[in-house]
Amino acid sequence: MHHPFRQLLKWARENGRTPKSDDARTLMTVNGDVPELAAALGIDAPDEMIEQVHLHIQEELDSLTLYDDVIPTLTALRRHHIPIAICSNLAFPYGKAIDLLPREQQLIRGLSYETGFIKPEAGIYHAVVSQLQVQPEECLFVGDTLLADYEGPRQFGMNAYHLVRGTPSNDHSINSLADVLATARNE
Question: What is the pTM of this model?
Answer without folding.
Answer: 0.92
